[in-house]
Amino acid sequence: MRKTVNQKAWFLVLPVLLLVGFSALIPLMTVVNYSVQDTFGNNVFYAVGLEWFEEIIHSERIHDAFGRQVLFTGIILAIEIPLGIFIALHMPKGGVWASVCLVLVALPLLVPWNVVGTIWQIFGRTDIGLLGYALASIGIDYNYTQNVFDAWVTIIVMDVWHWTSLVVLLCYAGLQSIPQAYYQAAKIDQASRWNVFRYIELPKMMGVLLIATLLRFMDSFMIYTEPMVLTGGGPGNATTFLSIDLVKMAIGQFDLGPAAAFSLMYFLVILLVSWVFFTVMNNIDKREN
Q1: 47 forms bridges with which residues in the sheet?
Q2: 3-state secondary structure 77-94
Q3: Which value, to the nearest 10 degrees, does the dihedral of the CA atoms of residues 159, 162, 168, 169 take?
Q4: CA distance 233 to 226
Q5: Which CATH code for domain 59-288?
Q6: Rounded CA gap, 127 and 118, in Å?
Q7: Which residues of 145-180 are buried (b: 16+ CB within 10 A; e: fewer)?
Q8: From CA 117, how far away is CA 121, in angstroms rounded?
Q9: Which of 136, 176, 200, 247 has its CA 20 to 30 A from that of 228?
Q10: pLDDT band at residue 2, thresholds of 50, 70 and 90?
Q11: Closest to 229 in 3D by CA, of 127, 130, 105, 145
């Protein structure tokens, strides 16, 4: 017998597709349109082909911003992933204290991005900020607005404070999903704590770790609000990451063509890395199944 397929469900999905098309596809096509055209004003455009893309590829300014962005993302992942695993491993497994710890860990995630930048902007000031005043009191010359090293350390610590909680929660969920039989078998075999982590906990957490790494990569690679509020991209261009440079190009200089080409290349880099992570996650799932 031929199975009848009910196509009425598409009518429920259609509003979502229309919303996505309006909010994502139409702006994307507008950016593509700007990336291959130039204008002298009065809404008169003429085609320039791939000129803007070539300009972005050979721009030393973009190369420097890309280097800063890769360095920042690498440092963030190197700190937050191991730190998140460490905290998740040492959190209570159940009871009242587990709930208390989960609430406390999740609190930084509830703070809006612009508020995070404002909090640390005040926190690091030497006149009224607790951190800046404390460091000045013990003789440390700290000034995140004038010193490049201080600015980088402040932004990194700020991001670690804000987003390590996400890694912790994902790792904790992965640990909670491990059956107790694995731990009982390890106890019978007198496995060391390191061996339990290496052969039981880490493999079982690999899926959520890849998700955490992917989310943190995407967010850190597109970071804008926090460093913009805290340092404005300074001192000089020391903390001018790709997103900040893109906004300055599009809004500050009103170079719509180069900015459109820049944003498309920016988007493709993130899309490519996300696809790599997705492929790795699928291979891990197939291996486990």
Answers
A1: 37
A2: HHHHHHHHHHHHHCCCCC
A3: -140
A4: 10
A5: 1.10.3720.10
A6: 15
A7: beeeebbbebbeebbbebbbbbbbbbbbebbeeeee
A8: 6
A9: 136
A10: low
A11: 145
pLDDT at residue 4, as a whole number: 66
Per-residue CA distances from 229 to 15, 35, 106, 113, 148 (Å):
36, 28, 23, 9, 16
**Which range (31-40, 118-127, 155-164) has the least confidence?**
31-40
Give the pLDDT score at 46: 82
pLDDT at 217: 92
Give one word for 116, left, alpha or beta, with left for phi > 0 and alpha for psi -120 to 50. alpha
Q: Which residue has the tokens 């320039």?
A: 48
Distance CA 169, CA 187 (A): 26
230: tokens are: 């805290």
The CA radius of gyration of the chain, in Å to the nearest whole number, is 24
Structure tokens at 138: 């013990």
What span, in angstroms and rounded, lies between the C-alpha atoms of 221 and 216? 8
Domain boundaries, given as residue ranges, for the chain: 59-288
CA atoms of 278 and 66, how far apart (whole Å): 23
Question: How many Å apart are CA 229 and CA 244, to the nearest integer?
Answer: 11
| Tokens read off for 188 | 């019978």
- How far is 248 from 8, CA to CA, in rounded Å? 47
